Amino acid sequence: MSYVDMCMAQVDAALAHLHLMDLYHNDVRTDNTMLKDDDTAVLVDFDSCLPKDATLLKGNIAGGHITKNKSGPENDLFGRNKVKEELRKAFPKTIADPLEESPTGRHGASG
User: Fold this and answer.
1) Which of 20, 71, 72, 109 could pair with 96 in a Cys bridge, judged by C-beta atoms 3.0 to 4.6 Å apart?
2) How far apart are CA 78 and CA 35, in angstroms?
3) Which domains does the chain have, with CATH numbers?
4) Contact 29, 62 (CB under 8 A)
């Protein structure tokens, strides 16, 4: 599993937890996705987190990319996909992923 896939799985788990409580982050973006010291991805900045269909109070939700001013899963999905897109640009597959097997059979970028 690539570094990006691992990060996105953790973001997806955080969103799934919120959605189970009928809450939506509504501001998923790279600025609100942080890494802990152990490289665990976490969501931060919950000031736009609201129940479904609640009116959003901030004007720049998800970088200004949402099309309606209501809380809901489409906002989180849009933001999640933008985060994944930006991570893929930052960590392209051409760069050796330190967590994947190297051609020499050892882990890591250096042999």
Assistant:
1) 109
2) 20
3) 3-90 (1.10.510.10)
4) yes
Q: Is-contact 2 51, C-beta < 8 A?
A: no
Residue in the structure block whose two tokens are 């004007």: 59
Query: Is pLDDT at 92 greater than 90 in this prediction?
Result: no
Residue in the block written with tokens 């609201």: 50
Q: Render pLDDT for 9-45 as a digit per residue (tens, 0 to 9).
A: 999 999 999 999 999 999 999 999 999 999 899 999 9
Residue with tokens 């998800």: 62
Q: How far apart are alpha carbons 24 and 78 in whole angstroms?
A: 12
The pTM for the full model equals 0.76
